[in-house]
Amino acid sequence: MARVLNKATDADVARRVLRTEIAGLEALLASLDGAFTGAVEILAGVKGRVTVTGMGKSGHVARKIAATLSSTGTPAQFVHPGEASHGDLGMIAENDAVLALSNSGATAELADIVAYAKRFRNPLVAMTRRGNSTLAEAADVTLLLPASAEACSMGLAPTTSTTMMMALGDALAVALLERKGFSASDFQMLHPGGHLGRQLLRVTDIMHAGEAMPLVKRGTAMAEAILVMTAKSFGCVGVVDDSGRLAGIVTDGDLRRHMGDDMLRAAVDAVMSARPKTIRPQALAAEALGQMNALSITSLFAVDEQKRPLGILHIHDCLRAGVA
């Protein structure tokens, strides 16, 4: 009677692939040496752009690395090696560097772009598995990928090798980011759209400033203060002293607590809440939203170091901007 072999489940295959690729990444981690620092030195010193290139699956990874570099403060572009041989070599300028990806290091299509970089003395960084390859020997610095099994059951399809390339590209981008002191505000400037842009919005980006702020001076009659509160539609009015510092705030809640025949004739000083909650203009809008939720309030004044109001932020401003 014929025996029926147990076929691996899809989940078993997935686990084998992930373990194989994790092993490749661990080998890559263990192999890092001075060449990585040398590559970062070259790319950090580039006055122009980093041209990233590769063919096939390496080319797809190269596109992603170029995008990651660009979004983290290192101007970069992808140039297809085939197109480079038909005019796109002109995209590589005098002050650019080239980062070339090839698992074998012998990709024929890279020959023209490598020769161009050597001819015009553009720094060349290679990312390859073979240290004695044509690409590695031409490069100023070679980032060697350790010998690791591809996750494909036939050992042919680029899987582990491209995962290592992708991770090494991320490592280069982050090392350059930290060298340059690339900040969250820099990141937001390059990512104005989408969820990332919304999460990095600052209070100053969406607050209401100048005449839009509901402000009165100390000693102002409550009747006048209520008119200002109603006209500005923030549900509150800030009270400033003679130096322009925020001395207090009158909210809808304060009005209810002090409701009486004499309230309209009273000065704001008698009704206001002293020591109002405030926030820095450069704080993230998400931080302001969290503070308003925690305190069960709907508005915050943004103040400078001297407590002078520079703007006001309503919880609806955060929600309209997509900060949540």
Helix content: 40-55%
Which second-level CATH architecture of the largest domain applies?
Answer: 3-Layer(aba) Sandwich
Instruction: Give the class from helix and strand content and strand pairing.
Output: alpha/beta
Q: Count of DSSP helices? A: 15
User: Tell me, what's the shape?
Assistant: elongated
Q: Enumerate the strands of the largest sheet in spatial order, edge to edge or round the barrel.
A: 2-1-3-4-5
Average pLDDT number: 90
The proportion of strand residues reads 15-25%
Number of strands: 12
- Give the CATH superfamily of the largest domain: Glucose-6-phosphate isomerase like protein, domain 1
Short description:
It is built from 15 helices and 12 strands. The protein has 324 residues and is of the alpha/beta class. Helix 1 crosses helix 7, helix 2 (34-44) crosses helix 7 and helix 3 runs parallel beside helix 7.
